[in-house]
Design goal:
It is a single chain. With 131 residues, the protein is mainly alpha-helical. The chain folds into 2 domains: 4-85, 434 Repressor (Amino-terminal Domain) (Orthogonal Bundle), CATH 1.10.260; 98-131, no CATH class. The protein is 59% helix and 3% strand. It has helices spanning 9-25, 30-37, 41-49, 56-66, 70-77, 100-109, 115-128; strands at 4-5, 52-53. The protein has a two-stranded antiparallel sheet with strand order 1-2. Helix 2 packs across helix 3 and helix 4 (56-66) packs across helix 5. The two termini are 31 Å apart.
Length: 131
């Protein structure tokens, strides 16, 4: 899979942020992503920092890995223009999930929640975001 040096700073920066958040939200490491996609750790690192943008083929593979439209990944990376794919817009930045410790700390300080409420919320969180 061929990469190219970054396009505009806004394109590569936006893609890098999208990619970092997506990897983090899937509880994966850069090494996990590299192995899943058959690329080097260095390649994943360069995508994460915006130093290079992934090839079209890599964008499709990234889409498959993270269950999103590969063409939208290519648009998000600036690899292809939205006009080339019927106006497909770039992917929105995923929300960043708070670490478990911050959530526990917040729940402890939340007035009005019973211990049962707090335990139920933490059980839901642990199911939703397994470590």
């Amino acid at each position: 899979m061929s990469d190219r040096r970054r396009g505009s700073d806004s394109e590569s920066g936006y893609f890098a942020e999208w990619f970092r958040r997506t990897v983090e939200n899937h509880n994966m490491s850069g090494g996990d992503v590299a192995r899943a996609l058959g690329v080097s750790d260095g390649t994943v690192s360069r995508w994460s920092t915006g130093k290079v943008i992934p090839s079209f083929e890599a964008c499709i593979a990234i889409g498959q890995l993270f269950h999103v439209n590969g063409l939208a990944v290519a648009v998000t990376a600036g690899r292809i223009g939205s006009e080339m794919v019927g106006g497909q817009s770039r992917l929105p930045l995923p929300a960043v999930h708070a670490p478990r410790e911050r959530i526990v700390e917040h729940l402890i300080k939340t007035p009005g929640l019973t211990q049962d409420d707090k335990e139920s919320l933490m059980e839901w969180y642990d199911r939703r975001y397994p470590e």
